[in-house]
């Protein structure tokens, strides 16, 4: 080891190597048989002592030690979902950069990453640590092509079948073996497993269980394989889900249980008025009902009542008042039009009334705070989440606005589920994404057309309720905050037509501020004459002071004159 740390690279090659992330049939990513649940990280050319001290206090670090070269640190982190190894790795790169300013060697992304053994008498191994659950997806996973039998074996899936056999009760060995083989048969017919390899692995596992006849075990395996080869894809998916459930049921991971210490601290802080409120809107009357929080928000309303325009005004307000950065996707509006509205709201001025300098500065301000997704094709919600992750891997984002959700493509190609279940998964994904990444997610959603038939005493359509949202109650149930935007566009009174109603239908966490508005007493705002902003109906004040860009005058230089 001394020679290695003196720079002898040939001696380093003689050191034993360890693949920390799992058991492999060969040293290749696609030969992974069973993942260990750990990722190894390399921090090269760092202050070893200082870095080790920092990492020792991190919640997610299981262990860390000096690398063989002596000028770096290696660390182990346990992840929540080994099947998303690379997505977790990307998130860890971002995490350690933001948290400690440490650069992770990104060549270590592979599952089969091998590390030379090292010597560190001061190695840190912690008994208590947390599993790392965040992930960043770099690109969409391509749908696996259907290939001929025997092209490759998906060892991650094969391991599920093997573990079923290991965990089977003594009286269920035969039935479990048949079920595991049936599962693998489906993958063989899809070109995802080699039949000979499946037989070898399953026979190896069942032979460890004190069986009476190996010959009988082989027959059971072959029967299961033949049965599974004709398995419809839906049954195959259900079989995988059941196997994964059984594995998770017995994996000993109890990290899903809430922390008593954290929960009591929050309750104690709340009792003393120490729980921080959501961010203000600029109008105390509105603050009683709505505050800016990093949560899942749904905005609904009838078509053509100005939902997008009103939402963009509130978005600009959050940016000016609190410095929020946004990702925006507006499928029904030209991207240039979205940027123009943001510019006009920020400056409270039509672009035609701006000087060229003001337009350039306002446009720069928009680009500094907003990422606009192109709308030249129809995306699914999965695409949108992917785009969010890609942007967030590059810069700090506080909130996301999707306008409207109803325009997104319903993609059932890789899911054996109903449209109802698809929407439920979408709502759950947005909610989870918000919590996991500490960002606000706003979805603009249309109300059912039928809801427009409800008329008030004035004969005009009334504001829709939360349950009138296209997509159903699943969205209402999953969101943290639900807002309805309504405008009586058919009124004969132009002043009424300019007034927008802001109904807060649901506030999940009232402890941090906000509560539903009374049924017939929404917060009201009115559009100004230039259509470049709103003011409170009662206060007659805008929510924020507009931005001003004053061109700097260059001082005249006289120092070129000759001195007499």
Features:
564 residues; globular; 18 helices; 37% helix; four-stranded antiparallel beta sheet; 15% strand; 17 strands; alpha/beta; Rossmann fold
Account of the protein in words:
This protein has 18 helices and 17 strands. The model is unreliable at about 140-150, about 555-560 and about 560-564 (pLDDT under 50). It is globular. It starts with a helix and ends in a 28-residue tail after the last strand. The protein has helices spanning about 1-5, 10, 50-55, 85-100, 155-165, 175-190, 195-205, 215-230, 235-250, 260-270, 285, 305-320, 335-345, 355-370, 380-390, 420-435, 475-480, 495, and strands spanning about 15-20, 20-25, 30-35, 40-45, 60-65, 70-80, 115, 125, 295-300, 325-330, 370, 400-405, 440-445, 480-485, 500-505, 525, 535. With about 575 residues, the protein is of the alpha/beta class. Helix 5 packs antiparallel against helix 6, helix 5 packs parallel to helix 7 and helix 6 (about 175-190) crosses helix 8 (about 215-230). A 9-stranded mixed β-sheet has the order 11-10-12-13-9-14-15-16-17, sandwiched between helices. The protein folds into 3 domains: about 1-125, no CATH class; about 155-250, no CATH class; about 290-535, P-loop containing nucleotide triphosphate hydrolases (Rossmann fold, 3-Layer(aba) Sandwich), CATH 3.40.50.300.
